[in-house]
Structure prediction request, 427 residues.
Amino acid sequence: MLNDARIKGLTAHLEAHCQCTVATPDDGPVAVAAALLRALAAAVPGSAPVVDGVLSHAARVSVTVPTPLGTLVVLSTAALATPLTRARTVVHEAVHAWQIVQLGGPQTAVDYLGSGELRALREAHACVAAAWVEYLLTGHLPEEADAVVASLGSHLYHLDEGERALARGVAASSLATIRAGHCPPIEVCRVVLAWLRAEAPETIVPERFHVADGGQ
Amino acid sequence: MPDTTPPPGAAADAARPSLAPPDLAAVQADGAAALRPHATPTSVQLVDRIGDVVAVIVFGLLCNGGKISGELCVFAVGAVLGVGTGLRQINPRATSSTGVGVVGLALLALAPLAAAVARSRGLATATLALALGGAVALTPPGCAPRLPPVAGCAPTAQRCGPSGTPEVCSASQRWEPAGDLPCAAVGAVCVESDGGLAHCAAARDGGADAE
Prediction:
């Protein structure tokens, strides 16, 4: 398993590759933002439920948001609980950051907010990447695609059954790819594998992924 | 794009509860199955949007000129962007709590930037940064979701796409990529198994099915 120093190394590598900044709840700007929101709640009638909702979820919800000055990833407190949860969350959010690199912030936001189908697709890619890094670090691979995208069943994602089926299809395809001995065709998955091979090869549990094969 | 993490002690692969933003405006790219949340004419929306931007700039200028306090300015801008503009962007199909959560998350993202500016240039400048950032973040100009064309495929079917990426047929009968790379980028080719599953595999594994 990765130690803290190597997780920070992986995070820094993904930050550079995906052009994002990863912040933790302890970081100054995030704390300032929380204070600002609390002040907003006190001053603006009707806004308290908004702010309370945001802050109450901040303990367990990590977010990736495009801003005019770059993509910001704010990790939740829960994401920092263990090295594995941190690695999974950073990789998950890095996929979203890469989507922003590829599509631009406004288009990414419109796609994500405006289409359940695209939201399911983008989240499925991110969930696959999180499962991929867990597989590399622990050797554990879910048997069923459902387990990879189970979190998308939450009503909070507003995905209907058809959209969740799309996510399951993406996960099923990715699991089949992994079982065939290949990295899922997702940029962040490829970057993570390359980094682990170069910087922490002993942490890769599945032997088949210890060395590059056929250009992976 | 929120992601949730299980609390300490939870199984790593357990289902993770999460907060997701709602549909903003489910306007399909090709016009099919369009669901327009509002029938408001574009011109009216434009005037409305301009009004919001002007309002936040005016608040910023008043603050910069010492007419109102910085704190009041921040609150006012928050009211215009967060409670006004932001909520008007959100599809009523979404639950209000999640919708306003999106607005809050946007503000949460922008506030650190404003705070950073505030440390060096004062609260007035920070307010303007927050206002302009919020306007950009919340009002993508004329954008609609970029969905691929309707292909008439059978939902949940899979295939190898023209670029060599596995694709899954969505409920709206569009081919959606199962990754953002072709299989060749991971040293493989796309194959379709007997079970109808498209995935990346070594060419020798795919046999006649390999592209």
